[in-house]
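Methods: example folding runs. The two proteins below were folded one after another, and each record is reproduced exactly as written to the output file, sequence line first and structure-token line second.
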Amino acid sequence: MSLRLRDPGRNNGVAPEFTVDPKLLDAISPSGDRGGIIVGSGLNGEPLTISALRAVPTRIVLVGGLYLARQVALRAVAVGAWVVIATGRPAAWQVLPQAAGTGPNGRPSPLVQIRRLSPVELPRPSEDAPLLVVTDGGPTPQDLFPPRSPWQTTVYVLPYLHPQATTIANAADIVLMQRLPVGQAELAARIWRLPPQMMRQLTTLKDDQVVALGANLWRPLRLVTTGKEQQLLGPVRRGD
């Protein structure tokens, strides 16, 4: 089963609904559609959504800056997912638990957990409480938390493409790529067997543009940031 972008009004399937505290929704300005995560807008301004939290183990690869990774994670929290971030740069991710706020007991919300880059016990995912695991381990990440159960999605954050990341890249259900230098675009073309015009397009993307790549999928889109996301993450950008 491949992950698909969904345009509103098209019969591309309906993602399940999840529940989350209304105060949290207000805090981070959710951008989801019935459990899907809006990743950007199309050429005509229409929102494009991926059903990233679903009943099968799912892999997503993000090639680009930290901004894109944090935005995807925020939007997963907004639709009710647990988010576990395994990272060697925890300070860069503190915006997520800050956005999630505190629980009824006054302690930080358990929905967002920041962990080291080492195996740990994960929350048990379910249809009512899906799990998004973010592996922020550099261009050649260890596969510490491969998705093994339904309702678990693992996101691999690659600051740039590296030949040793080919296995993880090839296993992804969907890849979101920001602008690449020529050499990395050539590597992308070899990994995914892209024709020359697609390879060239990867080198000319603007700071707010992303290409979504998957099985029978090549879709340029524009990143869109809500007002509250901009307060947390700053303006849309290519780098960190």
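Second run, written to the same file directly after the first:
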Amino acid sequence: MDITIHASFLPQDDPDAALAFYRDTLGFEVRNDVGYEGMRWITVGPAEQPGTSIVLYPPAADPGVTDDERRTIAEMMAKGTYASLLLATKDLDGTFERLQASAEVVQEPTDQPYGVRDCAFRDPAGNLIRIQEKR
């Protein structure tokens, strides 16, 4: 089989804040920015990986989600327990230094027992963003 990862979805509840974080803070390029009925889906990704994207989507857009589920999603996003993303870099300490002034730090760079060094931030929607460097 020839299967690749094309896109992953992360919820966002403030498209302008999400755009500023992923474009301006992380340096991803904007590939698409689509509005529909007052909502926005923003597709971003690293310039060096044109075939892999992250779609920042409004979680309330799914018509199959009940009002109770929407409230639960909003609560989980606020706590940072709804969604996460794992990124990689060759220079974790340098990346951490650049990002710490612009994002909520969850964990400073740490050597993990499973062979990576990583750190963690939250994006404006509360999503956990882990960044790791292989050892």
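Comment on the second run: The longest strand covers residues 29-36.
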